[in-house]
Amino acid sequence: MMIFFITCLFITVNGQCPLVCSCDDHDKTANCGNQELDAVPENLPWFVQDLTLSENQLTRIPKNAFPSKNNLLMVNFRNNQLVDIADGAFADQKKLKTLTFSNNQLTRVPTNGISSAKQLKELFLDHNKIQMIRQKALYENSQLEWLHLAHNNISMIAGDAFSGLNQLRFLNLEGNQIKAIGARVLAHLSSCVILDLSSNLIKLIHEDAFKPLSAANTLKLDSNKLTDNSFPSNVFERSSKLEVLTLTNNSLAMIPPPEVLNGLKSLSTLSLSANQIVLVKTKGMTSISTLRRLHLDENRITILEPESFDGLKNLKELDLSNNKIKSINNHRFDDLVDLEKLDLAKNTISSVESASFTKLHNLKELDFSKNKIEELDPEIFLYNKKLHQLSLNNNHLKIPHVNWVKNSDHLSVQLDKNPWTCGCHMVVFLNSFLDGRHSATTVLNQIICDEPEELKGHPVNDIDEGHMHCWQEVDLLWDAAVFIWFLTLIYIMRKWRILQLCCCCFARRSKTT
Ligand SMILES: *[C@@H]1O[C@H](CO)[C@@H](O)[C@H](O)[C@H]1NC(C)=O
Ligand SMILES: *[C@@H]1O[C@H](CO)[C@@H](O)[C@H](O)[C@H]1NC(C)=O
Predict the structure, then answer these.
(1) CA 162 – CA 184 distance, rounded (Å)
(2) Of all protein residues, whose CA lies closest to atom 14 belonging to ligand 2?
(3) I need a labelling partner for 196 at 20 to 30 A (CA). Which of 54, 245, 384, 450 fits?
(4) Which among 220, 223, 251, 295 is the best mutation to test ligand 2's pocket, defined by most ligand atoms within 8 Å of the CB?
């Protein structure tokens, strides 16, 4: 009887939700978040699989913090003050799948604390103070698929640090202090699909560094200290599955040369935005012909050499905005037969040659805004029949041409902030919109006249056509008719007068006789 009673009591105690938590036996959760806890609550109900201990004051997780009866799959310690996770802290939690230690004060990877969590798939250690990753730091957690180490203070990663992690698919090391990637730092990551190394101090990369990453799809190296010398030849030799390579916000002065890009057989996106690239060299990218998106915005490009984009027959998007390009010359884009989007905004382009875009039969969006273009050939877009969006705003254009807009279907044109001359060309251009002669659209009240003086500052749709200083053919014919009629009249009058004079003479003469 006594034994029975004690057992009952034990079961109820063990099955009750701690006062500071709220439990749900349907969802199998216990939420003990934001309770100013400084210790892990004891005696969690057996049904809890998902335990939240975030926003508390925990500093340490002791050995065997959770009794062996628990069935925990996920534990969340986000936003505590954890400095230490004791060896064997999760010794009995063999089913754990997700552990979250984000936003704590950990200075090392809790190798022995979590070594028994053999089923662990996701480990969050981001926003801590980890300084280094030792060899085989997570060797026992061989089922790990997602590892978050972003925003720590990691400056050292030992060779073979990720040994054992043959299932790892995602590794985030963003926002650390890593200066170099040694030959064996990324060893064993043969399943890794996404690797983020952005916002570190990386300057040196060993020629073998990326070779283990044979499954990698995305490699991010934005905001590092990379220069043209950082990439050894053939560094991407085994990166045949890499589709996305981002090198934004580094110190590259050149597009990486063919001997560096060599091996990138599936590359689809290359981002080189915000570097110091000055020149796009002839045939520099022929080895990455699979490329679909190329971002070269925010560089210092002044010159596009002939055949600079040769070989990029699959390119859909080319961003050259925010550079120092002065002119667009014929045939620079001739090989880009698939190009759909070309961004040339925010340059200093003043001249555009008339055969610049003749091969871009698939072009849909062209952005020329914020340049210094004074004139564009009337036939410049003759071959861009799919053009859908044309931005010519913020330029120095004076004269619009109907032919810019008449060739493509449902084109939307931005024309504001140009010093338009409101004369004959403007009348013809406007009438082409008003007549519905093509399907193009524009916002007429954004086209503001700069000349003639008396129309300065007026939007074109506010001005009566008669004030635009334009005599069209019909007007001219009418004027000519009036003029001829007038001449004839004078002639007749003069003849009549001669007749009259004759009559007079005759009359006078007959009188005298
Ligand atoms: C980061 O680590 C360095 C040593 O590598 C140390 O001097 C520095 O204080 C650490 N910074 C923080 C914020 O912990
Ligand atoms: C570019 O990188 C520097 C460090 O190299 C960083 O301070 C800055 O915030 C980054 N800029 C952007 C826009 O990411």
Answers:
(1) 9
(2) 223
(3) 54
(4) 223
Tens digit of each residue's pLDDT (9 = 90 or more) over 315-355: 999 999 999 999 999 999 999 999 999 999 999 999 999 99
Tell me whether strands 22-24 and 29-31 are parallel, antiparallel or unpaired: antiparallel
* Tens of pLDDT, residues 450-486: 988 888 888 888 887 777 766 555 556 666 777 788 7
Q: Which of 306, 304, 356, 354 is nearest to 326 (CA)?
A: 304
**Which ligand has the minimum distance to the alpha carbon of residue 128?**
1
Give 377: exposed, middle or buried? Use CB within 10 Å, 0-12, 13-18, 19+.
middle
Closest protein CA for atom 11 of ligand 1? 153
Which parts of 381-472 fold into alpha helices (H)?
402-405, 424-434
Q: How far, in Å, CA of 102 to CA of 36, rounded?
A: 17
Is 131 a pocket residue for ligand 1 (Cβ < 6 Å)?
Answer: yes
77: CB partners within 8 A, 6+ apart: 53, 54, 58, 61, 99, 100, 101, 104
The shares of helix, strand and coil residues in the chain, as percent rounded to the nearest 5, are 20, 15, 65
What six digits make up the tokens of 432? 């082409």
Q: Per the omega criterion (within 30 degrees of 0), is the bond before 452 cis?
A: yes
pTM score, whole prediction: 0.86
CA 413, CA 397: separation in Å to the nearest integer?
Answer: 14
Other Cβ atoms closer than 10 A to 17: 19
Instruction: Pick the atom of ligand 2 nearest to 249's CA.
Output: 1
Q: Which domains does the chain have, with CATH numbers?
A: 277-485 (3.80.10.10)
Backbone torsion region of residue 492, taken as left when φ is above 0, otherwise alpha when ψ lies between -120 and 50, otherwise beta: alpha
Strands 351-352 and 389-391: unpaired
Q: From CA 25, how far away is CA 297, in angstroms rounded?
A: 54
Distances from the Cα of 72 to the Cα of 69, 124, 191, 349, 387, angstroms: 9, 16, 27, 63, 57
